[in-house]
Amino acid sequence: MSHDARLGDRVTLGPGVLLAGGVVVDDDAVLGIGAVVLPDRRIGRGAVVGGGGGGPRRPRGTTVVGNPARPLAPR
Asked: What SUPFAM superfamilies has UniProt attached to this entry (predicted)?
């Protein structure tokens, strides 16, 4: 396992974000305050991980919140 993280273009990381080894964050993703991304995960293009949310494998453009992370329910 590599301990490197790869960040795409226009990625926003809030304060206190933790990225484990082998993480890839694709273009235009947003990781909120205190988000934790587990080893060898990929955060898809345009995904939003809410503050404190974990980073599971999700399709691009998905918004997840909570711990464990769950998709944000539509209003």
From this structure: Trimeric LpxA-like enzymes (SSF51161)
